[in-house]
Amino acid sequence: MFRELIGGLRITMRNMLSKPVTIQYPEEQRPVPPRARGRHILHRYDNGLEKCIGCELCAGACPVGCIYVLAAANDPAHPVSPGERYAARYEINLVRCIYCGYCAEACPTEAITLGPRLDLADYKRERLVATKEDLLESWPGFRPTAAAPGRPDPAPRSELAAPSPTAPVARSATDTA
Amino acid sequence: MTAEVQPGPQPVTLTVDGRAVAVEPGTLVWDACEKAGVFVPVYCAHRKMEPVAVCRMCLVEIGTMPKLQPACATVVQEGMEVRTQTDRVRRFREGNMEFLLVNHPLDCPVCDRGGECDLQDFAQRYGPPRSRVPITGKVHFDKARALSDKITLDQERCILCWRCVRYCDEITGDRSIVLQERAVHTVIDTFEGRPLTGEFQGNLPEVCPVGALTHTAYRFRARPWDLQRTVSICPGCSYGCTLGVDSRDDEVVRFVSQDNPEVDDSWLCDRGRYSFPELNRSDRIRAAELRLEGPLRQVPALEATAAAARALALVVEQSGPGAVAVLGTPAMTNEEAFALQWLARGVIGTPHLDHQLAEWPGLDPVEFRLAVADLERCDTVLVLGERPELATPVLSLRLYKAERKRGREVRRVAADPDPAELARTVRDRQLVGVVAHEGDRDAALRVAAALAPVNREVRRLTLTEGMNGRGCKDLGLLPDLGPGYVAAPAAGMGGRAILGAAAAGRLRALVVVGPNPELEADPAFEAACQRVALLVGVTTVPGVLSRHAHALIPGRTAVEKAGTVTSSEGRVQPVRVALQPRFGTPPPELRLLVEIGRELGGRWTGEPRATPTFAAIEAALPAYRGTRGGLRAAWPQWERPA
After folding, report:
1. CA nearest to B226 within chain A
2. Could you give phi then psi for residue B213, rounded to 5 degrees?
3. With bands split at pLDDT 50, 70 and 90, how would you rate the model's confidence at B514?
4. A161 interface with B at CB cutoff 8 Å
5. Within-domain flag for A155
6. Of B432, B447, B463, which one is at a domain's C-terminal end?
7. Predicted complex ipTM
8. Are residues B46 and B71 in the same domain?
9. Based on the domain organization, do B441 and B419 belong to the same domain?
């Protein structure tokens, strides 16, 4: 009988003296696997221009229809993104999203990726519809957690993604002659 | 033109991919393939234009011919064997797609055509998996160049199919778009770089198979998968063009044409096509306002109709029904016009009823005898003045087609020509068409009377103002005529006289259903509004009426309600709900008018909805029987000589 009692108490003692598993969420957060698909991030080029060109391919690829994009024409003097078009509104319903990552697959400029943040909670459902300001890289509270390996910017794939806001959009036909 | 099918001699039989098909002689192989159920990709070919065979996309193998032949420009022959699925054709299509994409910028993500582009679709279906031309080696041209305030041109995306060039040559005849330069530097541009003008520019992006020509008004507004399309009738004028209403987020973002060969022949005018921002007005009237029984307050629409009915009943009781006048608008549907007519004559009992300011005593359906499509059959078409083509611009394209393709004589004469002079030169014709605006009605009457004895038949087409000016007349929104041009029991005052009498204080109450731009623009209307003791207004657009109405009742725009409208030639066509009603959308005008009538003690059998109301119209007006799907009403009066 004593054997069993001591055996049981040993386990109790061992766990009493070991480091607890509990962490102080949300101040402390568990590391996230590097390829986890969490809350979306809209990226910028190094010069600050948005990568998103408002093409709506993410919205078209989205199987649940949680992305809303409203495009507009760039003002050549103050472009928001390189080229002719940018997203004037970009919204994702984070509660409807299934985090499949098709939007990132579809994006021709690698503007949207799924980030490491998995903690989606709020007191109001409406606040879980993320606006462009919420999703853009520079939003004030943006804090990549330890597990977010900062992805280097990929080389621009075509002139669509050319990160030069100064390049004239229209060329004259004679340039090509 | 793609072989017009005439009742001809022996049909020609041929096989397409082994399937036998019989077609009329003179048919193009492309059409024969379609008839056989075989799809042949094309860029340059267009049903409404002559073949040019420049895009080379439709090349097929025919019999033992040594080279591939363009299906869009080859005429069928007896016993032809057409093969579209052979390895040779497939290899050729691959090469052709690669060639078309050599200098294409591949900017589909920012292109407005992305998602509904033939270049994308055919590249997926017939193109090679990769190009041998590096993306950096492309020849570049002008991007996003404004050809006018309506059209934006991207020369890089152009595949040089010439459709726009041919459209300007064959359809509008203004030759404003031309090909410039040679070889790889070939571009389309306006003639001498002048800005595009003309009333039919909006069709250019529609004939363009790629994203080279785009609507400036639709630039970056939506993707095809965002849009919901509803087929309805253009609210721009009384020509009755069929159009697709594309909407996104409770807003109309564009009008697209739908081919109705009897009316629009697949073309729209810019005035109609770009009229949609008017339907998205943020200041449109949504709440009912009551200045009766106390200070101004906002109430639900049906409460306003009840208050309006009580006030009207009081006026009728004090001053008799003759103290009330009712004004409609040529923008209202047939069902609404029918209900308004019932409300005025049947319930209130007033003879003072009209839908516009000008008056047309003794109107007769014979003035609307000629069909639009029959303009192509007339030996001579006389167009009186400029007003017909100003009121209904698409008419110009039909006249040009009659002239250019059918070789008819189209004479544009003065608005009030000398009938005797015309009768000397226009004689011994089988069919003469007289086209006039309703404002030149008397001149048209004189011309037709002078020409009738010296020609076999003279038919008239009178073009009315407003979307449904014709339907309002048919349904008796006239001071002297009831539904079906039957004399009304008592002739009342017309539009102009009503405003005069109201301003002079001889009318106590005015019921106005809008929006009626003609009324809003007339100073006499404001004077009348200020003078009457009771003004009941139903409208969507803020203006004179909404400022003065004692009972202001919100209505619905042309894309928010169902019903039918009648075009100038008498075609009864359905208007459909493109923007679904949501919270805050007022009830349709038809229901509001019926509610007012019921409050006043009138009897309206059946639901106040479009379908049962049209059945009531059919019962009251035999000419409208069975016309709802887009048929012309045939009038018994037509049997009499003009």
Report:
1. A60
2. -105, 125
3. confident
4. no
5. no
6. B463
7. 0.85
8. yes
9. yes
